[in-house]
Amino acid sequence: MTIGYIYAQSGTNDWKNKWILACAFTLIAGLYVSAAMMSIGMIATALLLFTPGALPQIASNLRNQPLYILLFGIFAFYLVSGLYSENLHYWGERVQIKLPYLLLPFSFAAVSLTKRTLYTILYLLFITVSIGAVWCLINFTLNYDAIVESYLHAKVMPTPFDIGHIRFSLMSAFSAFIGWILYKDQFVFKAQWERYVLLGGALFLVIFLHILSVRSGLLAFYGAAGVYLILEVWKNKNFKQLIVSVLFLAMISGAMYFLSPTLRNKAKYMNKDVSRFKEGGNVNHYSDGNRLLSWQLGWRIGNENPLIGAGIGDVLDEIKKIYIAEYPEIEERNWLIPHSQFVYIFAGCGWLGLLWFAAACFYPYLDTRLRNVGLFMIFNTIIVTSFISESTLEIQLGVALHLFFLLLLLSYTNPKPAEE
Predict the structure, then answer these.
(1) Nearest to 317 by CA among 88, 75, 96, 81
(2) How far apart are CA 382 and CA 405, in angstroms?
(3) pLDDT, position 281
(4) Contacts of 247 (CB under 8 A, 6+ apart)
(5) Which of 58, 215, 263, 301 could form a disulfide with 347 if both were Cys (CB 3.0 to 4.6 A apart)?
(6) Of 117, 61, 37, which Cα lies nearest the Cα of 409?
(7) Of 380, 352, 388, 386, whose CA–CA distance to 364 is shortest?
(8) What is the pLDDT, as a whole number, of residue 135?
(9) CA distance linking residue 86 with residue 319, whole number of Å
């Protein structure tokens, strides 16, 4: 087997699918144990750009699917904002985190993912998240009183490998839908009993989300469920299904409020915290109030330079100035960048950046081809809802979740090559 033969084979869609599979396995492992593995998984995907016949296929898919360009544009706006940012060190950090948006949209445009490859990757994510959820609940049971009490003080139960409760709640919400879709599509590796594991695991993760009681995850789950049901009813014209599903979800949410002490305590804390913010109280040690304040500050910074923003490199410095001048009672360790990806981009890139970013988020709802891929619409809704209350893309794990899995699902819609 010569190097020339190997290189020629790398241009086949079958080889590319196997390569994506290996990259995805590396990245999923990295989500839990190693930032370096996450980077390796994403960087290795970029090698698809250099396979035989990649450029014509990329050009064709870019013409047919605007979302690839919209995602690349996120990196472009961050990059260009350096021209009017004074703090180039902070700007460089932000651009480095966004580097995957430079290459991965083009890399995934070079492959047409098969259903088998896609479902195998999602199956692995489902399994790892389910195991992590079991670990969370075992730890919760062993430390029940302390953890329940902690929910009255803006804390939540520990998540596996310090992955972070917000990201893990989003992964759990997506994995619940993965279990349902794979069950519905009768996907198994070897035996039919796997389908019931998938269905049971999906229900388990829905219950777990309510015990974990992270707002981002719950909002993502119910938002995605709403979008999925609307699209299914629209496609099948089965309005009875919509009514039954809505009643089922309402029953689950109502039951879990009474059965889950963590959810009740979270609701109590949130009500108290938001009320304090509305009344103009000191939000120094109050997470929700400080989060709402960060939205106000980010919006204010953006409005001072409405067209192009303050520059991504200067967002943090501008926030610090306001805290020092107007909120001396808030300790430095409690200062927050705008805790909304939409507000953060508006502060750094103005209306131009925000409108582009919004187009990347909401274009899929206008694309008939994407609307027909239930898991794509589910995942997009989950990640977009997280952008409302979190600056999701300002850490590497958030970028990995958003870009890699969105592009996985997007490349599944690419036209199949002639060889298939």
Answers:
(1) 88
(2) 12
(3) 67
(4) none
(5) 301
(6) 117
(7) 380
(8) 96
(9) 14
User: What backbone phi and psi angles, to 5 degrees, belong to 330?
Assistant: -90, 125
Any idea what the Cα angle at residue 415 is, between residues 411 and 418, rounded to 5°?
125
Residue 375, helix vs strand vs coil: helix
For the residues of 231-267, what is the DSSP string, one character each?
Answer: HHHHHH--HHHHHHHHHHHHHHHHHHHHH-HHHHHHH
Q: Are 344 and 298 in contact (CB under 8 A)?
A: yes
Query: Which structure tokens are listed for 99?
Result: 């580097």
- Token readout for 212 is 């974990």
Task: Write out the two tokens for 274.
Answer: 């938001």
CA separation for the pair 88, 70 (Å, rounded):
25
What are the distances in angstroms from CA 243 to CA 220, 222, 348?
A: 20, 15, 43
Residue with tokens 């960048």: 337
- Predicted local confidence at residue 420, as pLDDT: 45
Instruction: Provide φ and ψ at 85, rounded to 5°.
Output: -100, 135
- C-beta of residue 84 within 8 angstroms of C-beta of residue 378: no
Euclidean distance between CA atoms 30 and 48, whole angstroms: 20
* Spatial separation of the C-alpha atoms in residues 361 and 184, rounded to whole Å: 27
Name the amino acid, one letter, at 113: L
Say which DSSP state 417 is in.
P
Supply the pLDDT for residue 342.
97
CA quadruple 131, 133, 135, 141: dihedral, nearest 10: -150
Integer Cα distance of 306 and 292 in angstroms: 20
Which of 140, 124, 133, 98 lies closest to 30 in space, CA to CA?
124
Query: Which residue's entry shows tokens 């990196």?
Result: 75
pTM of the model: 0.94
Cα–Cα distances (Å) from 185 to 54, 181, 212, 289, in that order, read 31, 6, 28, 43
**For the chain, which ranges sit under pLDDT 70?**
1-8, 276, 279-281, 284, 418-420
pLDDT at 252: 87
Task: DSSP letter for 400, please.
Answer: I
Q: With residue 47 as reference, give the H or E element that holds it.
A: none
CA dist., res. 363 & res. 81, Å (int)? 23
Tokens for 14?
Answer: 């079958």
Helices (H), 214-340: 215-236, 239-259, 261-278, 287-304, 315-326
